[in-house]
User: Fold this.
Amino acid sequence: MQEQAFIIEKDQLFSWLEKLQQEFLLIGPKKQEEGGGVAFLPIKSVQELDLNYTLTMMGPQIYLYPPEETICTVWRKDDGGFEVRMREEVPRQVLFAVRSCDLQAILVLDKVFLRPGLEDRNYRLWRENTLLIGLHCSSIHPQCFCASMGSGPFFEPRQGYDLLLTDLGQIGYLAETLGERASSLLAALKAQPATQTHFDQKRQIGHYLLTQFQKSIDTTHLVEVLLKNQDHPVWSQTADQRCLSCTNCTKVCPTCFCYNTKDTVSFDLVRCERTRYKDSCQELHFAQVHGANFRSTRSSRLRQFVTHKLATWVEQFGCFGCVGCGRCMSWCPTGIDLTQMAKEIMVSEGLYDRRRQT
Assistant:
């Protein structure tokens, strides 16, 4: 796949985005009027973009895997047969200023929804019609531990995105393209090629950011330790004392993919619409099967969330399900921290010194 690197001046970048808006819906980080937080939203003017954000509540993946969407519509025909209509196209869009952890989260969702033989049609449509532009962090959120999970602070895999930007200050942005689509769209800028000096500056910024993390976790033996300790008291203690089963952790997690479906039938029985919506393993009903519920306790549901993100996901997809963004603990009303639960288990296994627990 073709890779190129350029230097784009900051005013030049905004002008380029304005031209893209003639062909694409631009979605990026925007400061909300109510509450003052930043969220990924459709952008009318590039001046609305907030490129200094550290963490949004919902990741940009909601524009690739919407929290609710129509899967198909079934119509009854006059001859008594049925016609199934599925989505054939989606709007062309740009996801702009996506941080490294969220780029990794999208790669994780790709493993879930684009598996050979099990491809999710709607997800593929959104993915193919989305121009994905990453923007490396310039500061670290206190709850972030992406460096521990191998997903940041700078995005390393050469896959999944179209353009990757690094803010080099007054020089402008180091723009690394991946593939023909981004290269052709950037051609009109006639930007100067990047030099080794620019990559050295990028590396220095990355080294500095690595010194700014307040949270970390050692993943060396994490998978086997969690799988070995399914009955550890930390699950029941945390669940009984703090967990509300509010589902906030799964709602804001950028890699959670579980969903349920509902069918809405017209009164005349001519039309039936099947919709899927995001579900949560923290809901009591989620593990309900005929005659039983195999996660009827709050502790078993909490354990499911943590061990899936930090252990069993590796068995399923060959990577962690956690990208270290810190959203689950940031929006947990009681401040439950999955890294602290994992460390508590490692302490009991003699793999972690409680005195240096952070």
